[in-house]
Each structure stands twice: as structure tokens, then as C-alpha cells.
Specification:
By secondary structure, the protein is of the alpha/beta class. Helices cover 37% and strands 15% of the residues. The longest helix has 15 residues, at 2-16. The protein binds zinc ion.
Amino acid sequence: MVHAIQSVFREIKDIVYPNNCVICNKYVEDSRNCLCKRCFSKFEPTWLEDWINKLRFSSGIDEVYSAWYATGAINDIIHNIKYHNQPRLGEELGRRIANEIPIDELEKIDLITAVPLNSVRSRERGYNQSEWICKGLAEVWNVSYQTDLLKRVKYTNTQTDLLANERKQNMENAFTSTNSIDSLSIAIIDDVITTGATISACAVVLKNCGASKITGVSCCTPQFGY
Ligand SMILES: [Zn+2]
């Protein structure tokens, strides 16, 4: 009986608020998801390659993984999460990253955290897309997440138009942490990892606080060895 009522409510909800794919607008059956199977199948996976040796700035980072290459629709998805508050989409990406990068394949991770908001604009926006990604990832990996581990003390303009060295300078002294992280192995999440300047700045701070190991994780990367 309860199932029948739930099913009726679901059908009514589908009629009133149809759950359509954010890319192609076709109906998505799983109400937790915002992406249909067909659109997701076009994402280009990196196949779990640890690309630490190709990262331009890797201080403090022990290993780095990106789920997909930043090609095609994933760029629009990241834009949507960043600029149009879409927590469900962020969580879904987190769950999908966890499937691309199974925790069993990694060395032990004790805690997940996010790169703090990266510009005055995003601070004004008031939410951090990476926190939603953290949430989805934490759910599937079954690892705790703590989003206030790092604090941004220097707000900077977007890194997109900067050269690699300028990105690094831009990130110097940008983060701090007052936490004591007693020998924990931590995964830091960002939406995109390009040169590693941002995530490396975060990693160095957490290592100085006592972290034993840092794993960088991102949704996507423009290419390895950028
Ligand atoms: Zn679709």
C-alpha cells in the first residue's frame, strides 16, 4: 500500500516537475540524477591514471586523479554547477567521480575536503560547487567530508586567463588552515585541475598542519601535462 502511494506521488511529481536531462532535456528516470545515460556516455574518461608526474605544480600533492577530460558537455556541466546553483548536479557528479575512481584502487583516504571558493565573485555567489561534489563523492566512497578544513585568505581573479607561473604567484599565501590534522590522508576536491597551482597551494597548507598524504581529485582536466 505504502509503495503504491509512493509510486502515485512519484508519477504526480514527474508530471508537475518532470526530471529532464540538463543537457538534452530528455526524461531521466533516476530522480536523483540530472544527466541521462546517453549524455553521460559521451564524457571522456581518463581511466584512473595518476598524472602527478605531468602536473606543472605538484608540491604537497602525492597523487592526482581526474575523472574525465574537459571536452564537450562536461564543460557546460561545470559551468552550470558554478554559476547556476545546482546542488543535485554537483552531488551526482561526485557520485559519478567515485565510480570512475573507485576508492578500492586508491591507498587509504581518511577525509575529503574541497578547495575553498576561488574568487570574490564566487564568494558573493555564496556557495561552493566543490562542496556538493564532495558530498556525492563521500557518499559512494563512504568517507567523511569536512568542507571547512581550508580557508581562503586571499581572493583572486579567475585563473583562466593567466599563464602557468602567474597562476602559481596568484595562489601564494591564498589559503590557511587552523586545524590540526594528525597524520590523516586527505583527498582535496576541485572541479577542474589544470596546472595544479591551486590544489598544490592547498596541499602544502594541509601538509604543514600534519596531513600525511594528499590526493588531488577533480571532475576534469583540460589534458594531462597542460
Ligand atoms: Zn541527456
